[in-house]
Structure formats: structure tokens, C-alpha cells
Amino acid sequence: QVQLVESGGGLVQAGGSLRLSCAASGRTFSSYVRGWFRQAPGKEREFVAAITYREDTTVYAASVKGRFTISTDNAKNTVYLQMNSLKPEDTAVYYCAAIPRSRDYRDYKGVSYWGQGTQVTVSS
């Protein structure tokens, strides 16, 4: 089993920044793609960003590309999401996730493990 715990959410003004962390325990991330999803009220959970374990290849949703950066500290089994130039539309609960490499990392239905979520609220 993999346990994922997010932190770093909060309230920030538009244009501001937040850094989310996702600490993993139980197993390493070696068998998984690491990702972030988000879900706003009344909306479906959507892909935000992902990073592979070995290649450190990153991919982003078009809505966050150029503003968000996903990174890892493999020694700490931790994944980060640096969020800059935040917009009110970014307001959501953010979830980190571990996706088997055999699955589509952009599809929340393929996620094996979820964090509990951390709220990000961006005010106008």
C-alpha cells in the first residue's frame, strides 16, 4: 500500500504562488507515475500534471502549462507542485496520485492511490 499525504494548500490572492507537497510512505514511487489532479465544486476531477519516476518527464494540462511545475525529491519520496501566477479558476481541491505505468496518467480512473486532498483557494 502507498499512503499519500498532501500539504501546502491555502488561500492566496490572484497572481500569487503556492507550493504543494505530497509525501509518500509504504512503498516507493518506482512503479508509478506521480501526478496531481484537482476538483472544483460541481466539476469532474481533472488532470493537472504528472512526472515519471525514471525519466523525470513532465506533462501538464494546457490550463496550467507555463504556470505550474511538478518536481520530485526521490530520496524523500515526495512530489511537489509549484503553482505560480495563480488564477481564481485554479480554486479546487488538489490531490496527488500514483498511477501505474501501464495506465493513462491523465485519467483519474487509472489512479491506484490518492492523497486526501488539500484545498487551494485563489481570490480575485
Main attributes?
four-stranded antiparallel beta sheet; 124 residues; 11 strands; 0% helix
Would you give an account of this structure?
Helix content is 0%, strand content 51%. It has no helices and eleven strands. The strands form two sheets. Strands 2, 4, 5, 6, 9, 10 and 11 form a seven-stranded mixed β-sheet that branches. A four-stranded antiparallel β-sheet has the order 1-3-8-7, with no helix packed on it. It has strands spanning 3-7, 10-13, 18-25, 32-39, 46-51, 58-60, 68-73, 78-83, 92-100, 113-114, 118-123. With 124 residues, it is mostly beta strands. Strand 7 and strand 8 (78-83) form a beta hairpin. It is globular, with a radius of gyration of 13 Å.
| Cα shape | globular
Q: How much helical structure, as a percent, in the residues? A: under 10%
Uncertain stretches: none
Number of helices: 0
Helix/strand order, N-terminal first: EEEEEEEEEEE
- Gyration radius, rounded: 13 Å
CA(first)-CA(last) distance: 40 Å
Characterize the biggest β-sheet. 7 strands, mixed
Strand runs, count: 11
Mean pLDDT: 92
Q: Strand-residue fraction? A: over 45%
Structural class designation: mainly beta
Task: Outline the fold blueprint.
Elements lengths: L2 E5 L2 E4 L4 E8 L6 E8 L6 E6 L6 E3 L7 E6 L4 E6 L8 E9 L12 E2 L3 E6 L1
Parallel strand pairs: 2-11
Antiparallel strand pairs: 1-3, 3-8, 4-5, 4-9, 5-6, 7-8, 9-10, 9-11
